[in-house]
Specification:
Blueprint (H helix, E strand, L loop, with lengths): L7 E7 L3 E8 L5 E7 L5 H10 L8 E7 L2 H7 L6 E6 L5 H4 L26 E4 L2 E2 L5 E3 L3 H14 L4 E4 L9 H13 L4 E4 H4 L5 H31 L6 E4 L5 E3 H6 L7 H16 L4 E7 L4 E7 L2 E2 L1 E2 L2 E3 L2 E3 L3 E2 L2 E3 L5 E6 L2 E8 L18 H7 L17 H16 L3 H23 L11 E5 L3 H12 L3 E4 L6 H7 L3 E12 L2 H6 L1 H17 L7 E11 L6 E4 L6 H16 L7 E12 L21 E7 L4 E9 L8 E3 L2 E4 L4 E4 L3 E5 L5 E5 L3
Helix pairs in contact: 1-7, 2-7, 4-5, 9-14, 10-11, 10-12, 11-12, 12-13
InterPro entries: ACX-like_C (IPR049517), Hydant_A_N (IPR008040), Hydantoinase_A (IPR002821), Oxoprolinase-like (IPR045079)
Protein name: Hydantoinase/oxoprolinase family protein
């Protein structure tokens, strides 16, 4: 298969089970999708397999954006590089001491023991040198000690990745830069990460954890990006490869190699960007994203077209200080394994993944997964899985559900299969409540945007459970995260901690610092070839009440005063936490977001449907959660549904790579953009 168009864009998203590749033709508006199995042993191969299903050559491709969870998986599976840490003398145990607290989920577990640190003590070295909190050098860096630390870590321990983090370097990075220069000159083949190249924010432990994670995944990501870039160039790609950032936007592969941690959640970020685009284009004020893939389920709140964002997150208990979408993840997806634990049914977090996959794949899997259960309940067509490109065995799935779930629980197969979805929904509701109800948001006021391979199947169930009136299934939902990557601009963020009172005098005093951050932004955008007229620089303050620990981000606008900033902060504080305080404000961090605008494909309207009622292509028995019975479900091909078509449930809509299930108390309407809008079902 080859691409004929002279203006095409590609985006590729690697998931835990499948690689999604999508192409967009600027001239015709055609979106095309191809899925290939993820290849954990050689991830670039899976990307090339997916791309190869859309085009033999990439000579005519004018944009290529990629999102990957390779770095995330390296952290979760402990498959990163062996890292050495160089820090201040006397602080080598900072990573291990951490905050000396017990995670909230283990608060009442008296047997709790913290996991071992990512870097063992023998790979952590302290060197003399000190900078105070104001950035003043009070003890020069011992350069010979840095050289000796490098010798011990590289020559004696054989490490190939080093992390540098010194006290108060956010205020003055001089010592970190000097140490990095010494190490790179002595060991040019060794990867060196410095904390201030990633974040200029206070809190030593969090900054140490952040730079350690960067060093941990840097060799893995750099090798992967280099291999992929070379193979894509061999296929004719002449335009730069761009990598999605965890906080939205894209950056060139060259910048991604310099800051690999910024890509750690780039796959889920694509879906959030795409959802924000749809929310703005269609004037949807409140949207919850519902992205369900093979191994995980991700949710994010979008209000007025803007997704929730945080500047501190955690991966498997390791904190990191990078801008990132406020995405809540549940370890449950199409490949999640259903199992019995002391008589209780559980779903996930472990997954069958791409290898061996669900039992129905007949590739060695023996434990039933969510995909196997969906086959048992009649939601999936065994002969049409992945557009018929993949043969699956529904009988094997049913046998696994019977022996592994139904018989131990003492129920029939249908009851056991339906219970799997009930357990999965209960876990999902908990995650959604964290980002809605616990923040004084009513989920019933939101539309649920469902995507990912399993999102359209699960979302109508979730909407019924939470009383959400509207569920939207966009075009090509199985590759919607990749579609979102096509909507991305180039973005990068620069920040520095200041810790000063929020006054007009402070706002005037930090003007030079803002100018410095903006200069860094201009430099990065210029290096990525962004024209001056396509650049935007956004100033933001992290503000808190005096005496608080955490802050909220407030965008600055021309003419702002301390009073106007504090007023907006108080308004946002009351909306988030239910109260405001008469306390003075404090500026914690200055931020500048540098945005390079890129051309984007727009939404295209479909012509009105020629008939009022579409014709089903088949009918099969399936489980209706509205009645608790197995009943006939008409089956429709999505390609035959036109704008204005309406379908009453129960019904199934198939599109090869994804299946939408509408239950007996729900109704589906196709909107003018070809999206499926499901209503009803709420209590």
């Amino acid at each position: 298969m080859s691409q004929d168009s002279g203006r095409t864009r590609f985006a590729v998203d690697i998931g835990g089970t499948f690689v999604d590749a999508i192409s967009y033709d600027d001239a015709t508006g055609e979106l095309r999708l191809h899925k290939a199995s993820t290849t954990p042993d050689a991830p670039a191969r899976g990307v090339l397999d997916a791309v190869g299903g859309l085009a033999d050559r990439l000579d005519d491709v004018e944009a290529f954006v990629h999102g990957t969870t390779l770095g995330l998986n390296a952290i979760l599976q402990r498959r990163g590089a062996d890292v050495g840490i160089i820090t201040n003398e006397g602080f080598r145990d900072l990573l291990e001491i951490a905050r000396a607290n017990v995670p909230s989920q283990y608060m009442y577990d008296f047997s709790y023991a913290p996991p071992p640190p990512l870097v063992p003590r023998r790979h952590r070295v302290g060197v003399p040198g000190r900078v105070d909190a104001q950035g003043t050098v009070i003890e020069p860096l011992d350069e010979d000690a840095v050289r000796e630390a490098g010798r011990v870590l590289v020559e004696e321990h054989g490490l190939r990745s080093l992390a540098i983090c010194f006290l108060h370097s956010y205020a003055n990075p001089e010592h970190e830069r000097l140490a990095a220069r010494i190490l790179r000159e002595a060991y040019p083949e060794v990867s060196v990460s410095t904390s201030t190249d990633i974040t200029r924010e206070y809190r030593e432990y969090e900054r140490t954890s952040t730079v350690t994670l960067d060093a941990y995944i840097r060799p893995v990501l750099n090798d992967y990006i280099a291999t992929l870039e070379s193979r894509l160039n061999d296929s004719g790609l002449t335009h730069p490869l761009h990598i999605m950032r965890s906080g939205g936007g894209a950056m060139t592969s060259e910048l991604a190699r310099q800051a690999p941690l910024m890509t750690v959640l780039s796959g889920p970020a694509g879906g959030v960007v795409g959802a924000s685009f749809l929310a703005r284009e269609q004037n949807l004020p409140k949207v919850i994203t519902f992205d369900v893939g093979g191994t995980s389920l991700d949710c994010c709140v979008i209000e007025d077209g803007e997704p929730g964002e945080v500047h501190e997150a955690a991966i498997d208990g390791f904190p990191l200080l990078i801008p990132i979408f406020d995405i809540r993840t549940v370890g449950a997806g199409g490949g999640s394994i259903a199992w019995i634990d002391e008589g209780l049914l559980k779903v996930g977090p472990h997954s069958a993944g791409a290898v061996p996959g669900p039992v129905a794949y007949r590739a060695g899997g023996t434990e039933p997964t969510v995909t196997d259960v969906a086959l048992v309940l009649g939601y999936l067509d065994p002969s049409g899985f992945l557009d018929g490109d993949m043969t699956i065995d529904a009988d094997a799935a049913r046998a696994a559900v019977r022996t592994e779930l139904a018989e131990p629980l003492g129920v029939d197969v249908t009851k056991a299969a339906a219970s799997v979805f009930q357990v999965l929904l209960a876990r999902t509701v908990g995650a959604l409540r964290e980002i809605t109800v616990e923040r004084a948001l009513d989920p019933r006021e939101f539309a649920l945007l469902a995507f990912g391979g399993a999102g359209p199947l699960l979302a109508p169930m979730l909407a019924r459970e939470m009383g959400i009136a509207t569920t939207i299934v966009p075009q090509v939902p199985a590759a919607f995260s990749a579609f979102g990557m096509l909507m991305s601009d180039l973005e990068y963020e620069f920040a520095t901690t200041v810790l000063r009172p929020l006054t007009d005098e402070t706002l005037a005093a930090v003007e030079d610092t803002f100018a410095e951050l903006e200069g860094q932004g201009e430099e990065v955008l210029s290096a990525q070839g962004v024209k001056p007229e396509d650049r935007t620089l956004i100033r933001r303050l992290d503000v808190r009440y005096h005496g608080q620990e955490h802050s909220l981000g407030i965008d600055l606008v021309p003419g702002d005063t301390a009073a106007s900033v504090l007023a907006r902060f108080s308004e946002q504080h009351e909306a988030r936490y239910g109260h405001a305080m008469p306390e003075p404000g404090q500026i914690l961090t200055l931020r500048v977001r540098a945005v390079g605008r890129l051309a984007k494909p727009g939404l295209r309207e479909l012509p009105p449907a020629g008939t009022a009622t579409p014709e089903p292509i088949a009918e099969r028995p399936a489980f209706d959660v509205a009645t608790g019975e197995t009943v006939p479900f008409p089956v429709y091909a999505r390609a035959t549904l036109g704008a204005g078509h309406e379908v009453s449930g129960p019904a199934i809509v198939e599109e090869g790579t994804s299946t939408t299930v509408i239950f007996g108390d729900q109704r589906l309407t196709v909107d003018r953009y070809g999206q499926l809008v499901i209503t009803g079902g709420q209590a």
